[in-house]
Amino acid sequence: MKDLNKLFYPESVAVIGASENILKWGSIIISNILDGGFEGKVFPVSTKNDIVYGRKASKTLKEIGEPVDLLIITTPANTVMGILRECVETGIKNVLIVSSGFSEAGEDGKSLENEMRDFALDNGINIIGPNTMGMANFKTKFLGMNPFVRLNPGGISLMAQSGNVGNQIMYWAEQQSIGMSKFVGSGNEAVLMCEDYLDYFNRDEDTSVIIMYIEGVDNGRSFMEAARRTTRRKPIVVLKGGRTDIGSKAAMSHTGSMAGSIRIFASAMEQSGVSLVETQAEMLTLASAFDAMPLPKGNRIGVVTLGGGWGVITADECEERGLVLPPLPGNVKDRLGQMLPSFWSKGNPVDLVGQPDPNLFRESIEAMISSDAYDAVILLGVINAFKTVLRFYSASVRLGKKSEINLDQLEHQLDRMQNVFLDDISKLMDTYDKPIYPVALISQTDQPIVYWPKENRKYGAMIFKTPEEAVSCLAKQYRYSQYLQRHGRE
Amino acid sequence: MKDLNKLFYPESVAVIGASENILKWGSIIISNILDGGFEGKVFPVSTKNDIVYGRKASKTLKEIGEPVDLLIITTPANTVMGILRECVETGIKNVLIVSSGFSEAGEDGKSLENEMRDFALDNGINIIGPNTMGMANFKTKFLGMNPFVRLNPGGISLMAQSGNVGNQIMYWAEQQSIGMSKFVGSGNEAVLMCEDYLDYFNRDEDTSVIIMYIEGVDNGRSFMEAARRTTRRKPIVVLKGGRTDIGSKAAMSHTGSMAGSIRIFASAMEQSGVSLVETQAEMLTLASAFDAMPLPKGNRIGVVTLGGGWGVITADECEERGLVLPPLPGNVKDRLGQMLPSFWSKGNPVDLVGQPDPNLFRESIEAMISSDAYDAVILLGVINAFKTVLRFYSASVRLGKKSEINLDQLEHQLDRMQNVFLDDISKLMDTYDKPIYPVALISQTDQPIVYWPKENRKYGAMIFKTPEEAVSCLAKQYRYSQYLQRHGRE
């Protein structure tokens, strides 16, 4: 297996084609690295510019005169072979090639790519790309890539065969405060292929969940073996592009890869314990759930809801995805009956009939999650319900009602109440080692998708936007859990 | 058919059980009406409180001494029959009952509901509910309901058999600046049933699209007939709760309705030209698309993309939903070839290989949308791509680059550029009467989902969050368009 540690944890980087023209790759990449907080050495290389963002640029690689862990090339395709020869002379072993104009651009590009690949293999040079938007390590704040996102360090590592797809996923991660470990856009995969990244992420201790956007795999067997080695240790989530004939054609003209039959691919992935998703958004949500929550050990679900309609929607989604809603055992029914109004539903879903009282919710959740009858609990409508109270209150103040507490204080109090509630959910997951899926009454798009407790606990509390999202995640986590039960966790 | 005009456009309203206790229905409803900007008369009625939000409360309905177009009841179930008798005495014909404790709460509640229904039918009283979160008219700013949302007037009217589902949908509409016409939570449907609301929305000139969350329909034939009458005039979008056995059971304990088989329901809906959706989020997006855009006349789709990966994902989604991506006709290829770099894809999807130049996009869209070969165009990755430029720029400024233009100015300029671009899309839809589906590079969650042009034009430009969302909408609009072609538009 290839040693990619220096590639993903470089301590010094050079950028060829460095410039201050903000729309050029040579500016985008180096300004992102310099502005992103990377603490290693950064060397601009340019034949045109003497100074780039306040740093003296070298004319050649030799001129740098210091070791370079990673070289990033942004100059045109026809400059690449010459630069690789300089790499051999200066001992550079890791190269990222942003430049396009290779196999994706026709026959000439294809032969250039072959020449480059042979040269790299002969000389032991690792190459990311060509035709990639770059790579990042969010722990060391090394952002050698296009999207100017500033993510917290987290457990999710992403490999994308399309830079734009990776781009969009990282922007979404930023919006939802999802932490990530690493990103790599694999580009044309002339040298390093998707299975190499998979093997690396498997061994990487900072990676707990791997997500991949894949259009095609050149060596299906070796990818599947890498996947099998990995899934016994950590979950892999894959979105496959090129699922259909026309999608495959589009993929061929994009990265030149053979997309292959989705049926064969899907069944091979399933046999390898990989979780397949249908959309980019689902990929990120499922990865966050794998990262933050315990796995459900079975498919028996308890539902607690603020209102009937959601209970119905959730029950439908559960049945459609192979989950069951067992009736309430006698002891759970008794425990709930002591708290709830006499006309409560007495069934699962437990309907709290419009009472967004966090204590009632907490007690109901614990009554179900502590019972042997349930493997997971879905919780509908209490998250962000506090926010509605703020609206009731501010309207009443506008209408002249006098009150001792001001709006800011109330908002602060309600936020605190909600955080205490989320904290309790994380605590319950720790105590019973079962997952709880809270769905927000009002999805707030600027809200972190995971509440991580301040105290040292294993699990964070997620906030799902819709019942469908929660159930879909739960069903896929359950499936992975079954895989581990059959094949053993490493 | 019932005349519900006064019910949906009341000029005077009384609220029984009015109070200033912000967590009680008697406060929630009246404070929402008073704070929402309603210009009609509002009469609080309370046996306990003399003054409610600065207004003198009457003890009884008679004491009001003026006509009441709509009465809202928030007091317990056992007070309702007495109040209805007062309605007969005072000539009140429209009543909304928030109170629960009727058929959803067991046998006693069931007989109370029957008694109430017979009394209402005998005396010609329209009743919304019981067990409802209320209703609203966003044009007259009459917000007789729980959610404190402030929506712009628009063409979408919503009926929900679950208040919480309606609640969540309206909060989402607010977040995305989606305008609505009316909302009604139908509750237990003791008197007014979902087909009555459907018939009313059909005739209502302020309603252009109808969306419904339905758990069960008591009289399937009459609902289907109402749907058929309506879909030849305006689209109906339905989300069905209780699609499965356990979902149906949950629905029965929720509203007491028989959910029925989803297969029969779905096929009946399809025969009636109704668009079925799977999720609440999809319901709102599809309704916005019906409201803002022309219908596609066929299924031949052109795709223009900033990057290959999205093109692949989009091609897959199209094929999976019965849409086709015809190759570029010679004249379109020539026109595009004059603008694009020599190594462009020369196929559909047209890949603009990372150049977010709005002029290039505009020209490419027009080349395709003006061609007889295409019925609709999907546009990937240019919307909000301007925002990434802002990040490049601000990093370069932080790194010491000098510039004449400040960040606010640049942001303003880029926003203006984007609005001009969206305006052009709306203009192209007007010119060619074909829909265009822009998908954002970075979905911004606080961004209005529809750009409505300032000039007087028929169509607004939508912004979709993902390729999947755009294609799913397109496929359903196409299906509705086929229905109209077969059955004729009225």
- Binned, the helix content of chain A reads 40-55%
Task: List low-confidence stretches of chain A.
Answer: none
Query: Biggest sheet of chain A, open or closed, and with what strands and sense?
Result: 7 strands, mixed
Estimate what percentage of residues of chain A fall within beta strands. Answer: 15-25%
Essential attributes:
homodimer; 490 residues; alpha/beta; Rossmann fold; 3 domains; 7-stranded mixed β-sheet
Question: Can you describe what's shown?
Answer:
The structure is a homodimer of 490-residue chains. With 490 residues, chain A is an alpha/beta fold. Chain A has 3 domains: 1-141, NAD(P)-binding Rossmann-like Domain (Rossmann fold); 149-292, Rossmann fold (3-Layer(aba) Sandwich); 294-487, Rossmann fold. Chain A has 17 helices and 20 strands. The mean pLDDT of chain A is 92. Chains A and B meet through helix 2, helix 6, helix 9, helix 12 and helix 15 of A and helix 2, helix 6, helix 9, helix 12 and helix 15 of B.
